[in-house]
Description:
The chain is α/β, with parallel strands linked by helices. Helix content is about 30%, strand content about 25%. It has 3 domains: about 1-140 and about 175-250, 3-Layer(aba) Sandwich (Rossmann fold), CATH 3.40.50.1820; about 260-300, no CATH class; about 305-395, 2-Layer Sandwich (GMP Synthetase, Chain A, domain 3). The protein is built from 11 helices and 15 strands. A hairpin with a 5-residue loop joins strand 1 and strand 2. It starts with a strand and ends in a 10-residue tail after the last helix. This is OsmC family protein. InterPro entries: AB_hydrolase_fold, Hydrolase_4, KH_dom-like_a/b, OsmC/Ohr_fam, OsmC/Ohrsf.
Amino acid sequence: MKSSKISFQNNKGQSLAARLDLPADQHPHNFAIFAHCFTCTKDFSAVRNVSRALASQGFGVLRFDFAGLGDSDGDFADTNFSSNVEDLIAAAAFLARDYKAPSLLVGHSLGGAAVIFAGKKIDTIKAVATIGAPSNPAHVEKQLGSQLEKIRNEGQAEVTLAGRDFTFKKQFIDDLEAQSCAEAAHDLDKALLILHSPQDATVSIKNAEEIYHAAKHPKSFVTLDGSEHLLIDKENASYVGKIVAGWAARYIPSPEVEEIKTTHQVAASLDDEDGFTTQLKMGNHYMRADEPVRVGGNDYGPTPYELVAAGLSACTAMTIQMYAKRKGWKIDNVEVHTSYSKTYAADCEACENDENAKIDTFHREIKLIADLDEKQLARILVIADKCPVHKTLHSETQILTKLV
């Protein structure tokens, strides 16, 4: 993934600081905008991790600081929920002008409420996803505690949230109380995905229920069981990004992957700036190969050796089922589990002193759901060793290479 710092102006002429996350090949099939949670920023962990997961699925993601927050211009005291919605509309206009108009909005917490309002006003948006969103923006008043009454009575007050001081004015409260996320969801007329955790102690899952019942179809709900409101856990945040990407594919047209032209069965393409993330064309199919993060990769796809092991596993399963069908044997399911490593070719006392004693080794386990006798099972084991990829790996091979 490539992430770059950018900025754009909102309708008040204020400069809003942003990051644009692009997929490894830097050719996103669609653009999305991410709205961060209440008083958070574009660099908050959940925002960053969800955006990266979306980018890994081919989206370009714009995440930015609302006016008055993070690195953006403006005074927080002069902002409100409505200005956040306007900032989202400005972000969409920026993408449409300088990149490509966005088709997806994603929002976390109060940002989730904001994308529902903004989604109605941005014509190019086809789908909206909310994460832990309140059904009523005024829900955030609970975070103001005892200072809420002071704001109402005196016009403003200082409130400390997550160790930072913010000035809230009465106009902020008035604006929140004038909004209804449920009503906005009813009028959205865009595909809506609601993600919420039943363990959310900040915004109860009752809010998700109210938004869902108010919205029209197409609408979907995914429970984030085990997650907390802020999605601090990286795995939970990445899961959310992948779920949103998979769901959105049903409602957002995705252009074909840029074709890799080849007369061969398989082709690999890797740009200088993409690290190990390699685009693959295998027959008529496209996918990525990569390396784990611990060795400098992005983990956007299987490793080269995992691809080899996958070929062995798939070929073994196909060969077993093909043989069973020819014999009239019923195998309900066959699983082939394969791992690659370098291990010693034989047990010996001096093996540790001879690196050449290690050979490439595939450990393969086969699981069958079938009513077969011992003789049939023994035959299946023999047939597994006759799968074409197995035979190729066992035979003497040659690789002829030339520059073209």
